[in-house]
């Protein structure tokens, strides 16, 4: 980047100049490696944040390469409070099975990806939050007469392969429900639209996100059942207490200034999602 004309410069002096330029050029790269731990005050620093890429309303990679959803909005707000502008964020896809490993490896600074706080997970990672209290629920057609869990007896209930949500309903509420397992929630929603299944079950926030998509608006409704409590937290590498504290402060500010409520309405509102009030930091609902 620099053109220099050196005349009558000794070899030692030239070497000193080269070393000085090299040190100056490399000084702004610290935040681009690992988890992006730079100050965020400029100079090329970035922060890597883990999200889902395939959950409308929560974490979705749009066709144009941008990202949308409630988790994205929360993470962007938090990053801002940590000193990073939106263009300094590098979004990293973190699938459910790899979240703990991604934090342990330092692939990301933190994860906001429908990450329910559990005792088992707390043995491996630390959590800030919770920032949302979700519940297992049912998504049904807008004109469906399914209003209670027992109404699923004899009905086709869909969830994704490997999920325990549908099996829990069958075991505890509707033993005669017919379970249908699809590869993705998108397939379940398409099955609900076509009539191949009568209901889809998982977290109400995830269901609301799918139902809020333009192609589905007005077609579905949430049954409003609270079949479980899912305390969404922001995952941080085990032992990074300083970052946990900073994120907690950011989430509290997001709630107090109204940005949290705005993000809820914008991302889940079209599905008539009746969200719980913002949870208090450190308060886990069992």
TrEMBL record:
<comment type="similarity">
    <text>Belongs to the bacterial solute-binding protein 3 family.</text>
</comment>
<protein>
    <submittedName>
        <fullName>Glutamate-binding protein</fullName>
    </submittedName>
</protein>
<dbReference type="GO" id="GO:0005576">
    <property type="term" value="C:extracellular region"/>
</dbReference>
<dbReference type="InterPro" id="IPR018313">
    <property type="entry name" value="SBP_3_CS"/>
</dbReference>
<keyword id="KW-0813">Transport</keyword>
<dbReference type="InterPro" id="IPR001638">
    <property type="entry name" value="Solute-binding_3/MltF_N"/>
</dbReference>
<keyword id="KW-0732">Signal</keyword>
<feature type="domain" description="Solute-binding protein family 3/N-terminal">
    <location>
        <begin position="46"/>
        <end position="271"/>
    </location>
</feature>
<dbReference type="GO" id="GO:0006865">
    <property type="term" value="P:amino acid transport"/>
</dbReference>
<dbReference type="Pfam" id="PF00497">
    <property type="entry name" value="SBP_bac_3"/>
</dbReference>
<dbReference type="GO" id="GO:0030288">
    <property type="term" value="C:outer membrane-bounded periplasmic space"/>
</dbReference>
<dbReference type="InterPro" id="IPR051455">
    <property type="entry name" value="Bact_solute-bind_prot3"/>
</dbReference>
<feature type="signal peptide">
    <location>
        <begin position="1"/>
        <end position="25"/>
    </location>
</feature>
């Amino acid at each position: 980047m620099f053109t220099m004309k050196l005349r009558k410069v000794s070899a030692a002096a030239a070497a000193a100049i080269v070393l000085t330029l090299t040190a100056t050029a490399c000084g702004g790269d610290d935040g681009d490696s690992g988890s992006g731990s730079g100050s965020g005050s400029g100079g090329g620093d970035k922060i890597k944040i883990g999200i889902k890429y395939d959950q409308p309303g929560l974490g979705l990679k749009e066709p144009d390469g941008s990202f949308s959803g409630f988790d994205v909005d929360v993470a962007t707000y938090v990053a801002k409070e940590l000193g990073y502008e939106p263009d300094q964020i590098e979004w990293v896809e973190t699938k459910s099975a790899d979240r703990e490993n991604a934090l342990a490896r330092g692939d990301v600074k933190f994860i906001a990806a429908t990450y329910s706080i559990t005792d088992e997970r707390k043995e491996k990672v630390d959590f800030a939050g919770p920032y949302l209290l979700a519940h297992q629920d049912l998504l049904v057609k807008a004109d469906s007469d399914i209003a209670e869990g027992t109404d699923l007896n004899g009905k086709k209930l869909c969830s994704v392969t490997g999920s325990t949500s549908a099996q829990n309903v069958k075991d505890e509420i509707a033993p005669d429900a017919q379970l249908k397992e699809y590869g993705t929630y998108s397939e379940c929603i398409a099955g609900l639209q076509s009539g191949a299944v009568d209901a889809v079950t998982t977290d109400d926030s995830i269901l609301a996100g799918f139902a809020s998509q333009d192609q589905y608006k007005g077609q579905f409704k949430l049954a409003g059942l609270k079949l479980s409590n899912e305390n969404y937290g922001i995952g941080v590498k085990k032992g990074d207490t300083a970052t946990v504290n900073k994120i907690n402060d950011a989430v509290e500010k997001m709630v107090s200034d109204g940005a949290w409520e705005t993000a809820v309405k914008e991302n889940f509102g079209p599905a008539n999602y009746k969200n719980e009030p913002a949870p208090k930091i450190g308060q886990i609902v069992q």
